[in-house]
Design goal:
With about 180 residues, this protein is α+β, with helices and mostly antiparallel strands. The chain has helices at about 1-15, 30-35, 75-80, 85-100, 110-115, 130-140, 145-155, 160-165, 170-180; strands spanning about 40-45, 60-65, 70-75, 110. It has one domain (about 1-140): Arc Repressor Mutant, subunit A (Orthogonal Bundle).
């Protein structure tokens, strides 16, 4: 996954300074998706209404999806109301698919379990493209250099780090484990 981290760093390095200066926090992921990648972010109540959306089993939900032919990222509005940091991660995750897995105009659908399988009581295997998009998302939202700087600046205060990066505790814990 080191190559994925490097691709995320290159992506961040290519962002014009009028969108993000490379150091202010939290990383403005929606501005990056819109103004740098040219993707419209839409909050949608029912993601199953997306063109070609897969049939879901009872209790399953889509967290987000990438519609490359339309230049759109759709985010599950209900999930983001309940867990606001989830919206940021979902957008970054779909940007990961945009950078890593775009296959013509083929849509990419992400089930909630693919985004947070590590939080599940019974760990589930995550398909490799989903894991790669998760790594890319974490590297975008919590760049390694800034995590290391802020870890010290926040006196290793986990809650302060989460607030500074507008991150969930689960995502921050995984990121700290990966880079500290």
């Amino acid at each position: 996954m080191e190559g994925i981290e490097q691709r995320a760093e290159l992506f961040l390095a290519g962002i014009p300074s009028h969108i993000w200066d490379g150091s202010s926090l939290p990383v403005p992921i929606e501005d990056i998706a819109d103004s740098h990648a040219g993707l419209l972010v839409r909050d949608v109540e029912d993601l199953s209404s997306a063109p070609g959306a897969p049939a879901l089993a009872a209790g399953q939900a889509l967290s987000g999806l990438l519609l490359p032919d339309r230049g759109e990222i759709w985010v599950n509005a209900r999930e983001t109301e309940e867990w606001p940091p989830r919206r940021r991660f979902t957008i970054a995750h779909e940007l990961g698919h945009w950078q890593l897995h775009r296959d013509g105009g083929k849509a990419v659908y992400c089930r909630a379990s693919a985004l947070d399988a590590e939080d599940a009581e019974v760990p589930q295997a995550i398909p490799e493209p989903e894991e790669e998009a998760n790594v890319f998302a974490a590297a975008l939202l919590m760049p390694a250099r800034l995590i290391r700087e802020q870890y010290v600046a926040c006196d290793r205060d986990f809650e302060r780090l989460c607030r500074r990066f507008a991150s969930s505790g689960a995502a921050m814990g995984r990121r700290l484990h990966a880079v500290i």
